[in-house]
Amino acid sequence: MKMFLFTLIASNSIYCSNVNVYVFDSPYASKFHLKSTCKGLSNCSHKIISISLDAAEESGKTIVAGKSKFHVV
Fold first, then answer.
1. Shortest CA distance to 16 belongs to which of 65, 54, 48?
2. What is the reported pLDDT for 14?
């Protein structure tokens, strides 16, 4: 059972590391979005850029409220 959970977590981490997310190109941006069509992205005048999920998390950004990065297809 422990090995199954480890494998499941490891495979999700590997899969998610290849995902690009969308952020505002601003030094004050603190969230990332999973889709470029996210409604929240239309609320800002800054340029929207695509970066890797790893880069977003390493820079301290967190996913927008109510979303889960494990729902990425």
1. 54
2. 43
* 6-46 pLDDT, tens digit each: 444 444 444 455 889 999 999 889 999 999 888 888 887 88
Burial of 66 (0-12, 13-18, 19+ CB in 10 A): exposed
Nearest alpha carbon to residue 50 among 15, 24, 21: 21
Output the pLDDT for position 20. 93
Q: How far apart are CA 73 and CA 63, in angstroms?
A: 16
- Would 71 be classed as within a structural domain? no
The number of domains in the chain is 1
Q: Which two tokens stand for residue 69?
A: 């990065």
Query: What number of residues does the chain have?
Result: 73
Residue 15 structural domain? 2-66
